[in-house]
Amino acid sequence: MKEIGDSTESENTINIISLEEAPDDSSTPNNSSTPFNSTASISSTKSTKSNNPLSSMNIMKYLYEKDYENKVCVECKSPMPTFASINNGILVCAQCGEKLEKLGYNISFIRELKEEWDQYLLSFLERGGNSRFIRFSKQYDLEEMPIEEKFQTKIVEYYRLLVSIK
Ligand SMILES: [Zn+2]
Asked: Residue 4 C-alpha to ligand 1 middle, in angstroms?
């Protein structure tokens, strides 16, 4: 006997990994059930509270020294970039940052180096960095592509995933 109108489908469990899980929410560190705590995360070891803003001077100095390519905008190569695209793990100048910001925060979550930072935000730049992005761009032949177009490609979306996990 068939039940006709009754559509009791078995549970579809679809697992979607959300790439852009609100990186600005500093109050809820989800350190309990994250599958991402395997490799190169130097972040969460010392301070489990992600709510400790680091001073602006430190951030800029730290990032410039960490990766020599960080000293120039990853896009236009102008010196001393003052903005970061967090989820792409790159440093950019104000002009390029503005272009990226217009694409929406899930494409590019922009933060000024002078603003408040915490360990969570910083961890994206530690895993990423301009050098890594430049290598990736060369590998996938993205260098000549206009900035707006480039960051909306699937391949850069994939890169954001990489930067978010390892
Ligand atoms: Zn630039």
From this structure: 61
